[in-house]
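Summary of Year 1 activities. Much of the first year was spent building the evaluation harness for sequence design. The harness presents a backbone, in tokenized form, and records the residue chosen at every position. We chose the following record to illustrate the format because it has been used consistently in internal testing since the harness was completed.
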């Protein structure tokens, strides 16, 4: 069975759209304006800004107490997930991939817990063979050379699917980095 590694945020799900909707609601509840919502989107850095630091930045921007940072952090994590919507075309594509003998497996940069919430909320957890955080996998394999990282991810993904697989490709919005990862893992396609 060929294995295909798929990115989650802005590949299987529209994280950017969900975050934008969340930001608008968050700002409206606090009497902010479009400029505040735009600031949130930019400061989020497409999910790359560490959540704890981002919660502090939000508290400062909106004049909230440091005690509110915990509530902001919870809202950052939960509120954005509530804004996710399932794209029927993605479900259909995953169904077709499985029917054609492919083993879709999500490898993501986020935490396993947060990304699991997203997958369960959208129902994508039932459409893929499993998921893991590339960050967590690579921490475990920190002694390996950088060029072997994709091989570690592919090997782990194969083991989670519970059957022999051949690594065949990766799908992501970050094509250059994923193409490099695919080549490092021995893929002929990405």
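For this record, the design step produced the sequence shown next.
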């Amino acid at each position: 069975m060929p294995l295909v590694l798929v990115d989650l945020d802005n590949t299987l799900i529209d994280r950017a759209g969900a975050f934008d909707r969340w930001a608008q609601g968050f700002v409206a509840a606090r009497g902010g304006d479009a400029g505040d919502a735009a600031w949130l989107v930019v400061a989020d850095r497409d999910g790359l800004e560490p959540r704890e630091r981002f919660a502090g930045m939000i508290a400062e921007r909106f004049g909230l107490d440091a005690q509110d940072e915990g509530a902001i952090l919870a809202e950052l994590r939960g509120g954005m997930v509530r804004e996710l919507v399932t794209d029927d075309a993605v479900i259909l594509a995953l169904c077709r991939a499985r029917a054609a003998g492919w083993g879709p497996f999500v490898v993501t940069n986020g935490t396993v817990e947060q990304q699991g919430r997203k997958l369960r909320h959208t129902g994508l957890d039932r459409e893929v063979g499993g998921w893991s955080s590339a960050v967590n996998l690579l921490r475990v394999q920190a002694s390996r050379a950088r060029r072997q990282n994709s091989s570690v991810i592919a090997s782990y993904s194969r083991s989670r699917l519970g059957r022999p697989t051949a690594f065949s490709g990766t799908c992501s919005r970050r094509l250059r980095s994923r193409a490099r990862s695919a080549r490092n893992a021995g893929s002929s396609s990405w």
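Residues 15-29 form the longest helix (15 residues). Quantitative recovery figures across the full test set are reported in Table 2.
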